[in-house]
Amino acid sequence: MTATAGTAGTAEQSKVTELTYYPVKGCAGITLPAARLTPDGLTHDRAYVIVDEAGELRWQWGDPRLALITPHSVDDSGELTLRAPDRGDLRVDGKAQADRITDLPGRPYGAIDQGEEAAAWVTGVLGRPSRLLRVRKAPGGTTANHSRLHVVSRASLDRLNGHLAERGAVPLPMNRFRPNLVVDGWTTPHTEDTAARLLIGDTELALTELTVRCAITMVDQETGRRAGPEPLRTLADYRRAEDGIVFGAYFTVVREGKVTVGDAVEVAVEGMDA
């Protein structure tokens, strides 16, 4: 059986404070007051990708200006609107212009090329030949987010910013870590590391793995510029694990439903008597 644990904060203390999805992998996110969580994660999360001429993913450390590409709408049909500084809006319908196969991390996925106008637009923003692709679901139902939900707690960020202050470094905003869901109210930092289950209303999430951090965390999400060495320098002092530097955790949705900012978050521990 599962039961809720009280050590990380009661349901009244712990709540959802941010919900964000990223329609284009590596680009800015859209923050919502409420969202539906499905077995694929947040609806429309990482539904599109930007690739180079060889079909390899562009990522923020190599192309930090990805952070300046801001999705402003996406719907169930796949229609997407993108904006970027000093450029007109780009609108794509998600339909096939030319079929491509691109190798996203871990396995090949089918992808729908959005055509020459979209390619010219993203190339203009990034300054390097690029194409915009809509990802088709793999047989297991996975899109470019690997059906994961990225969770980070405010307590974890507060601890990091405390360590940064000791070094005389400026505090960092939550968007450096690009979470889907932010929890506030846990008194213990990194509670997300050990929460076997999270219960949010009718929705249940299961912990899958800790989030290994890379150089993308050193990109300023507001300016689209590299701004290292933080936070990796400081995180390396106290958050180094076997696979690398960790901060935040990935969860899968085991019971889908609607989540709203302000919803209580309960930590459920396997094996306890209810």
Account of the 3D structure:
The protein is mainly beta. It has two domains: 2-25 and 31-38 and 146-270, M1 Pyruvate Kinase, Domain 3 (Beta Barrel), CATH 2.40.33; 47-135, no CATH class. It has helices at residues 115-126, 154-166, 232-238; strands at residues 2-5, 15-21, 30-31, 34-38, 41-42, 48-51, 70-74, 80-83, 90-92, 98-104, 107-113, 131-135, 149-153, 181-184, 197-200, 203-212, 219-220, 225-226, 240-241, 244-255, 257-260, 266-270. The strands form five sheets. Strands 1, 2, 3, 13, 14, 15, 16, 19, 20 and 22 form a ten-stranded mixed β-sheet that branches. The protein is globular, with a radius of gyration of 19 Å.
Give a topology summary.
Elements: E1 2-5, E2 15-21, E3 30-31, E4 34-38, E5 41-42, E6 48-51, E7 70-74, E8 80-83, E9 90-92, E10 98-104, E11 107-113, H1 115-126, E12 131-135, E13 149-153, H2 154-166, E14 181-184, E15 197-200, E16 203-212, E17 219-220, E18 225-226, H3 232-238, E19 240-241, E20 244-255, E21 257-260, E22 266-270
